[in-house]
Amino acid sequence: MDELTLATGPPANGGSCVARHEGRVVFVRYALPGEQVRVRVVADHGSYWHADVVEVLEASPDRIDSLCPIAGVDGAGCCDLAFAAPEAARRLKGAVVANQLAKLGGYHWCEEADASAEPVGAGEATGWRTRVRLDVSDGGRAGFHRYHSAELVSDLRCGQLPQAALDGIGDRAWPAGAHVHVALDDDGARHVVQSGPRIGRRTATRVVEGGYEATQRVGDRVWRVPVTAFWQAHRDAARVYSELVGGWAQLGDGMVAWDLYGGAGIFAAVLGEAVGDAGHVLTVDTSRGASRAARAALADLGSVSVVTDSVRRAISAQSRRADVAVLDPPRSGAGREVIDLLAAAAVPRIVHIGCEAASFARDIGLYLGHGYRVEDLRVFDSFPLTHHIESVAVLTR
Questions:
Q1: pLDDT tens-digit profile of 363-379?
Q2: In angstroms, how far is CA 332 from the centroid of its own chain?
Q3: Torsion region of 335: left, alpha or beta (phi above 0 gives left; psi -120 to 50 gives alpha)
Q4: Using an 8 Å Cβ cutoff, are 162 and 169 in contact?
Q5: What residues are labeled active site?
């Protein structure tokens, strides 16, 4: 398609920068604000275009040599901000969240120019990831997807991962169409599990190295979580979020908490310890594997009930009001139906976690519409080298 020379403006949600050409908005990937770039238009949506940088003519002072050797326009889609200095990337992410909150949520967090995401743990830009899923090509090579493409990049030197994570994985032949799940657990062991390919109605799972479950720790508590199930990818994220949720929940003896989209029960653990034997914590998730891990890890907490069901049905079944609800929904967010149920249940305190800026902002706006107010809000750079973030807000009514 067409090539253009553009001046880039502010960051947009999704990892692009906004530029304009003859009045039309152009979302430019692999650019930073304030650059002069030559781009190739890759998608025409009528009122706006998407484009990739072909050449940087005038670079931002925040542009650095890429920290991921396989990412970029013609590479893998893994690390779409690997060319931005880490501090600058955090400012861009904060600005995007501030923009989305104002635009979609009707909430002023801070000025975009003053916004920034916080580092997680020590804040290393590389080598922070402990879990990854690779897909397998028709030729039997494991790889990362190119951006929005079915094509795979079989060079596995992603900057997010420690070298030990994928040693030898690229040398093996795998069944076409399979998924390769790799986890480095908190005991230093590597686990490799192959799932698929799907044959008829059956999807086979095979342990290639280590075990099917990985050992994960938060404080003194131990989880055994399937390698194919969800656990926070950043090695420090589970601890950081658990401590934050525990503090913001403000629970005491005998109180009631709902842990919604609770996964393996990371938050249910700290909530259960806070409410004591006289209290009650309901943790809900649709994943049977995550629920099994939660039941095993939280077996000593008699106040915690683990339910495998939808959040909507679980809330509707409760006869006792929660003092606090903690939500960690998928990228699509909680949405109107769940937030309406929380408001109808008169939950006075809510801790809401979101990993996508637009859906998080929309959800915040839904809470505001029910009379909640934001007591505090923080944004974390939980996925360095990428445009992804984790936002956490505590709301009260």
A1: 999 999 999 999 999 99
A2: 11
A3: left
A4: no
A5: 355
